[in-house]
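We modelled the chain as a single entity of 96 amino acids. Its sequence is:
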Amino acid sequence: MNKSDLILRLATELDLTQKKAEEVINTVFGLMSDTLARGERVEIRGFGSFKVKDYGAYQGRNPKTGEIIEVEPKKLPFFKVGNDLKDRVDNGNQEP
């Protein structure tokens, strides 16, 4: 499922226009992105949580030339699956 599929599904499930469903999806993802950009955690009970992890600098290698390069420290979003979702996926349960 991609973002367009999610918008169509939301519009159908809640009897919304596609434009309104798109606004809802964009708002939710925008708020989540803004929260993560501030370094805060996003938790959706039963689904999982998102947080920002710090990764230190390290020496890497250019795969094309083999040259050693310095990789700068960075922050990346990290997702940890919730137990309910983990169990549902593991058991193949499609019921909500």
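As a brief sanity check on the tokenised model: Helices lie at 3-14, 18-37, 83-91. The chain has two domains: 1-38, 48-96.
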